[in-house]
Amino acid sequence: MSTRTARFTLDPAFTIGEVNPRLFGSFVEHLGRCVYTGIFEPDHPTADEQGLRQDVLDLVRELGVTAIRYPGGNFVSGYRWEDSVGPAGDRPRRLDLAWRSTETNRFGLSEYIAFLKKIGPQAEPMMAINLGTRGVAEALQLQEYANHPAGTALSEQRVAHGDKEPFGIKVWCLGNEMDGPWQTGHKTAEEYGRIAAETARAMRQIDADVELVACGSSSQAMPTFAAWEATVLQETYDLVDYISLHAYYQPLDGDLDSFIASAVDMESFIENVVATADHVGARLKSKKKINLSFDEWNVWYTADWEEHTKNADPADWPEAPRLLEDNYSVMDAVVFGSLLIALLRHADRVTVACLAQLVNVIAPIMTEPGGPAWRQTTFFPFAQASKYGRGQVLDVRVDSPTHETKQYGEAELLHATAVRGEDGSVTVFAVNRSRTESLPLQVGLNGLDLTSVVEHSALADADPDARNTLADPERVTPHQVQGTALQDGTLTAVLEPLSWNVIRLA
Ligand code: AHR
């Protein structure tokens, strides 16, 4: 056991901000089997009359997701919204350039809204529009079709298609990863800033209250990072509400300690985008603050995808192929939990975040066609954070032992946050980044009326490579930790090596 104890103090007088429920958003893209045989499989034994898998819906509810971004991702840059509405049998089959697949359009806009309704009132649409191969006119058509009550050609078309009630889509993403050379219709910051501003201005003519997300960088490592945000926001500052961030993490060159400390990058990314947005605001002498939509984040082993594209048969455009079906380990889930902690620690400015993605594609939920659905290791930190991470984030400044990492230098072994619910209860979320040592933890509780430990749940395993699979879907689940105590205003616990911990105090 490590000799040094990690410590921090909680005090309700020192808060970061209120958690926006949209921090627990997710993402459904027309990619691989996320939609087809993921959420939608009309022939599945559990499918309802709309072809939605009930077993998947149950898990989506248990996961606790809120806003669900749709329909992409890279897919949106070739998306023709009108292909995805009307009688399903009449919809065209199209080439999907982003994922070298054939899109049948069997599942479309109306089915997406039906899916959200089936999840429950916590689910909210977050629609991306195509600014890759399309522009202002198509964005306006889609907005009118989706949101205008009735009495115009496009709104009446929706009614004729069976959706009398408008969809009420509030949050719209103005394109996807337009800074990336891989994006169909990739643009320079100046070109994108201009089309984003024009689109935003026009969309606000239909509805001044829409919430708009401008594309930020596809990662902090992009060569245009920060300059991109500054240019785009200079053009769009008064017209948009959010700037987006995307980040995926994986071990590079077998460097596990840096991988485990990935949240160091995520936190610096967030802080650098806040600084850039506020700098533009200051230059424009604006009182408005731009918030952050971290609308794609996860662990993703991209090497598997790169290998797949190298070997792709140029004549092959499969329907719903198995793509990006990462199978997550305990270590991946601990890193994933740490990314959640990073988001919560910045809840004052990150007010939307989407776990990419929801089912089968780098996802917490896996399915087999005609077969079962099960939880990946990453399912558990997300479900626990969504359930217990609601309320005020308390300011957590840790005094922790550190270790050396190749990418980030000295990294604290403890990564933590705490959220105080409306009823005064507090949940501590903590990760021990050490692969070999337990970490003793002491938390001072100032001015908080807390008397008992409700539970200490941990995700950790003697085998950090353990995973849930079709054959063994419950190999990894969180377990209860004994010995965690609250006495005389101090919480004491021991965090197992490489562990995600949820400590609930009442
Ligand atoms: O989530 C997978 C892909 O990652 C998305 O389509 C794209 O936006 C990002 O590069």
TrEMBL record:
Enzyme class, UniProt record, top EC level: hydrolase
KW Ion transport (keyword) present: no
Residue ranges of every copy of the Alpha-L-arabinofuranosidase C-terminal domain listed in the record: 295-499
InterPro entries per record: Alpha-L-AF_C, ASD1_cat, GH, Glyco_hydro_b
Keyword Hydrolase annotated: yes
Keywords per UniProt: Carbohydrate metabolism, Glycosidase, Hydrolase
EC number annotated for this UniProt entry: 3.2.1.55
Annotated catalysed reactions: Hydrolysis of terminal non-reducing alpha-L-arabinofuranoside residues in alpha-L-arabinosides
Gene3D superfamilies: Glycosidases, Golgi alpha-mannosidase II
Record family assignment: Belongs to the glycosyl hydrolase 51 family.
PANTHER family: ALPHA-L-ARABINOFURANOSIDASE C, ALPHA-L-ARABINOFURANOSIDASE C-RELATED
Subunit comment: Homohexamer; trimer of dimers.
Protein name: non-reducing end alpha-L-arabinofuranosidase
UniProt organism field: Streptomyces hokutonensis
Taxonomic lineage from the root: Bacteria, Bacillati, Actinomycetota, Actinomycetes, Kitasatosporales
